[in-house]
Amino acid sequence: MSLEVPGQLWKKATSTIGLVVVRHDDGANVMSAEWSYFVNKDPLYAAVVLSPRAQSRELLPVSGEFSLTLCSEEQAELADFAGSFSLADIDKTGSELIEFGAPEATGTPWVDGGLVALECVLRDTVPFPVHTMFVGEVVATHLPENDRRPLVKHGPMHTLGERLQRTAVAAAAQILPDGTLRVAATGPAVRGGDLWQVSLLSADGARVDLGEHPSADYGDFLIDLPLPEDLPPLAGARIKVECDGAKPGFARLLRRETTS
User: Which fold has domain 11-159?
Assistant: First the structure.
């Protein structure tokens, strides 16, 4: 372990590459923004984080709006190009890889060909020691007719592989101040009956069946159970949670202290 923070540690993060468009007196600038995110659901807010080298960082507060296209995997060449040159170098909008869509709620065009294009009105600016975050409220969206796969930045650019199939249950358990056992678990989509089997495993290997119970509203599991009176000692005990078609999950038995 080291107390020094490696200079390139931020490349461990993963994000969908964004194409940011900002208007200026002579037209519009297109740049790539590796750090592009949704930061609020309702109302929907999106944020882009720009470095001091980005000329759009000076243009955006003046414009008061921007568009953000989340790139599809077909836009790797465009993302690389738009991130390699500044507006001070050349007007990048002359590239035939850039096709603009007409704005509907703002005056800023958006780049076609991505997963989604967002028209945003600037709502907040957050300065950091080096970079600056610009937060915009999404006031219009433009979706393609067919779904596209994202262009992902994780150091180099990547495409997504196959969807990960979950195979095991993850669980936690604790005894509440009133002595009730609370169990929470998630797992893969349940095949067959929508039931979760809960058991208590004592330190000496004894098993106490705590019954089968249905899922919560969104398919996960959260329940409070009364503990039987004739339980073995709970020191070192574990909880086992099972659902059909998945490896069981295990949890250390914690105790929640009373809080004032």
Answer: Pnp Oxidase; Chain A (2.30.110)
